[in-house]
Amino acid sequence: MERVGFIGAGAVGSALARALSRRGYQVVAVASASGLSARRLASHLPNCLPVETGQAVAQAAETVFLTVPDRIIPQVAAEVHWSPAHQVIHCSGATPLEALDPAARQGARTGVFHPLNSFSTSDPEAGCRWVRESFFAVESHDRAFLAELKALAHALGQGAIEIPGKWRPLYHATAVLVSNYLVALAATAAGLWSEFGVERTTALSALLPLIRGTCRNLEVYGLPAALTGPIARGDAETVASHLSALADYPSVLELYTALGVAALPLAQEKGGLTEKAAASLRKLFAEKRTPGKGGAAEWDA
Ligand SMILES: NC(=O)c1ccc[n+]([C@@H]2O[C@H](COP(=O)([O-])OP(=O)(O)OC[C@H]3O[C@@H](n4cnc5c(N)ncnc54)[C@H](OP(=O)(O)O)[C@@H]3O)[C@@H](O)[C@H]2O)c1
User: How many domains does the chain divide into?
Assistant: First the structure.
């Protein structure tokens, strides 16, 4: 990769551009919708110009990252005149590679380079660290370019995972499960603390060490060892008390039972749960979900 440019200077564009620059790549041009974020990013990079348009980025650089919101990737790819000298990359987990077909039709090599991490706009320095800690899902129909993307993933972060296009929706769903839905779970749990008079922010502060400890266990002990708690122990009495406590919160009860069912095979794999204990837990969960026994049909009524 000789000269690199960015169309889009938000959370991911800024983090990747800085990470590339620190690794010795020449990031030469950057554009954004308002121009403001492009100017800010360029001011932190040596010999990088903020430019007005995506076309100007393509004129200055051979490798161009389209780090714009997913929905406008096809539009931006179609607005620019590309040449066979170009390599055009998007960083979206969910968007198909084919969104870059307007560039491919003009001879450019196209690829996906999705950092498997959560980036916020507020802290670009942290963004660089997140790049370093990330794996990247890569895709390209061009074998040589795919190899380049893999090498880049190793140079910038933890390495590459090749995800063929047909599996990307499933891959991205797993990312949403462990990232966005973890936030939703934390919000759901913290929100319930208001019932005993603790406001959400305080509740989150109290729950965070537990969340961190669980992540640490996942990191250190892996699966299934990181699973602790009543299901891992086969403690049906405690689970039954949770189900009763949650009876007044139908949507939370639904979440609790669905995740409880998902935890059962893990607890069995870990070895703390006999088949008999698993069967009684399964029965408890099933009763909660069966119409007429406090199940889903009643919640909907
Ligand atoms: N955020 C994450 O956690 C994350 C993680 C993995 C992958 N991704 C992917 O990374 C890509 C970028 O996401 P992001 O979170 O960095 O988005 P973002 O923070 O919202 O930034 C989007 C950038 O695109 C610019 N932009 C919007 N319309 C444009 C246009 N027509 N022409 C040129 N620039 C335009 C914006 O310009 P202004 O700043 O001037 O408004 C902004 O700099 C997406 O494909 C996303 O799926 C995001």
Answer: 2
